[in-house]
Prior knowledge:
By secondary structure, the chain is an all-beta fold. The chain has one domain (9-95): SH3 type barrels, CATH 2.30.30.30. Helices cover 0% and strands 47% of the residues. The strands form three sheets. Strands 6-3-2-1-7-8 form a six-stranded antiparallel beta sheet, with no helix packed on it. Strands 4-5 form a two-stranded antiparallel sheet. β7 (69-73) and β8 form a beta hairpin. It starts with 8 loop residues before the first strand and ends in a 10-residue tail after the last strand.
Amino acid sequence: xxxxxxxxxxxxxxxxxxxxxxxxxxxxxxxxxxxxxxxxxxxxxxxxxxxxxxxxxxxxxxxxxxxxxxxxxxxxxxxxxxxxxxxxxxxxxxxxxxxxxxxxx
Length: 105
């Protein structure tokens, strides 16, 4: 079970985007995630008339290592570590800071 999943709100704890928050768009592999608005780069794109695609410079979100992000805890308004616990026979993610279940309202 992954500690950080698609759709989770995370906060960046290291790198040039330190302190920014965003939503996980995708897990690229076991160690990398793509976060909305984080680790943006400029990519030079060649025009492709077959796909009706114009050329130019576009902003693109690149993957970031999972060690550089923490799950955002709305209860404490900070980044928090994640643990696992059995609740009603199901394995759920919980915040280490206050013990709240991740995703519970």
